[in-house]
Records
---
Amino acid sequence: QVQLVESGGGLVQAGNSMRLSCGTSGFNFGDSAMNWYRQVPGKAREWVEAITSTGDNTIYADSVKGRFTMSRDNAKNTVYLQMNSLKPEDTDVYYCDAPRIGRGQGTQVTVSS
């Protein structure tokens, strides 16, 4: 059974940092690129970042470039999203996604001004 479970969300003040985690099971994590997306009801889903299966390359949306860093630990089947210099417009539900495999339920990130 494929599972992706995000954690680490919550309320943070603008300018501060937060790290999200996504633990996975049920598929060959080390063979899969991974993505982070964000979305709230009524808004289009926004792709945030992607990382290759080995973790040696990442690509970022312009909206988070220079502030967010994605990483992974293949030994722990976990992917991370380090978010620095958070802004109120980063408020969203953040999802990890394994392409063509599945995605998690999401974790809420709220950035107060």
---
Amino acid sequence: EVQLQASGGGMVQPGGSLRLSCTASGFAFGRYEMNWYRQAPGKGAEMVSRTSASGDESYYTVTVVGRFTASRDNLKNTLYLQMDYLRPEDAALYYCQPSGLGVRGQGTQVTVSS
């Protein structure tokens, strides 16, 4: 069974930082491209980042370029998202998803508010 456990969310002031983690099991993590998505209330899901299976390359939605950094540790089956200079519009439920498997984790909530 594929499981994706996200953690690290919370409440932070604008300009603050958070580091999200997504620990995976039940599939060959190191063979899959991994993605971070977010969904704010009343809005559709948005892909935030895409990281290659090796971790050598990551791509980001334009609104987070220069502020967010995705990485992965294939020995730990874990995907990370370092989020800096957070803005109120970054507030959402963040979850990870491997490309092509059609499964996602339950996510972790990020709130950005003063």
---
Amino acid sequence: VQLVESGGGLVQPGESLRLSCAASGFTFRSYSMSWYRQAPGKERELVASISSTGVRNYADFVKGRFAISRDNDKNTVYLQMNSLKPEDTAEYYCQGYGRWGRGTQVTVSS
């Protein structure tokens, strides 16, 4: 089983990024997938999740700015992040099938 995140980077406040998580080794379409983040000195927190049937849930701090989606044909889950703020700076992790990816760094700074 592998979860590989990509798409992180350095952006300015107000800009956008799209994270991707490519999954392999399990029946992707049958499992919920989630994005978490962890800022330095803070605990890891749930950002968004999407069920196998497409039901989405978001943390209050990203509602209206972030959108999670999945492509079951590509075994990939996405996190579209708009109107980024400095407080969104964190390592972002993909989670599914009880496994974690290694993370991708998002830095929002002017």
